[in-house]
Amino acid sequence: MSRAVDVVVVGGGVLGLATARAILLADPRRSVTVLEKESRWGAHQSGHNSNVIHSGLYYRPGSLKARLARAGGEAMIRYCERQDVPVRRTGKIVVATAEKQLPRLELLAERGQANGVTVRRLDRREIAEREPNVAGIAALAIAETAMTDFGAVCRALAGELTGLGATLRTNAPALSFAGEGDRTVVRTEDEEVRARVLVNCAGLHSDVVARAAGDHPTVRIMPFRGEYTEVRPGRRDVVSNPVYPVPDPDLPFLGVHVTPMLDGSVHVGPNAVPAFAREGYRWRDVDRRLLAQLARDPALRGLARRYWRYGLTEMAHSLVWRLYVREVRKLVPTLNGEDLRRHGSGVRAQAVRDDGELVDDFVIDRTARAIHVLNAPSPAATSSLHIGAHIAADVFEHLGENDLARAVRADTAAA
After folding, report:
1. Are 3 and 33 in contact (CB under 8 A)?
2. 221-358 sits in which CATH class?
């Protein structure tokens, strides 16, 4: 069967679904199909994360992350409230445990204030009053942080899209792409979808999809596994709200944090371990073809030169329980190895430049027939409604609807 549509979205995570929603809210006449290779929505990054709605604290002022995170977080909270998706405003603290971290903590405070985040500095006494089990010499209290369930957000978006007239397909991997005049033909096992615009939200496979569509992605994806542990039930009162370390400013990762979840459990993590498969949720998940590609890739050699010390440290913490527990105890000294148990993992699609540099901002490439989302790590889930509108505006420009594109951009900027 062959169908002609205005837009096909490849990837049914929170960002792909939010993009389809933004298109149809702006122009209900459009025909939109979403293809997801798994049997459920949000099966990978969107369903394997800390479920934190971020405030916009960390991101370089003026970056796409910074512009979209603050307003995007508030939009996500409002969306959850309207859709009866669990959500709770919790706030969080970012804690410095050593003197050398204080300049980085101050930089975070400056960034947060520049991005419109409510930042309050805490001293050692105030940390102890707020979180008695947390060790720190200084901290930042961030009011805007919230918790939700992004898997439930994906299900809400899919339900809303059905009402808006979208065609939703799970168990529908995109097997091939071909140009046909001004359209891209996407073939699945059951049909061909002939789209005027292809939107690639394939996450861990986004660079593969871009190349298969005949384009040349400006970055490549390196998978990083983020492993979690869970605090045993008897110690779940160890923190009241999310507690984060001061992150390394040279890395796009936030560090191992302690997060009370909405179901009452408390998760610790994630780390950031190089994965050996695009969906490498365990050490034994190894894709030999991917390893062969990486071995020939000069970007990987550049990545190894830049970050070898960090990579070895993260792998050691993953493989040696004692080292992992010691790292956690820097933040929460009252926790010990008996208080923690392993609790699954997620895999982050991290973009890498040709010289091996890890990309710290969203990357959205626009080509003649496609829009490729090539880097959308945290806070992409937080910002997904606004990122989706940003992409929708690009889609309308592709379709020659420039007035509509301007209106979508203006609405997003005003939100």
Report:
1. yes
2. alpha beta
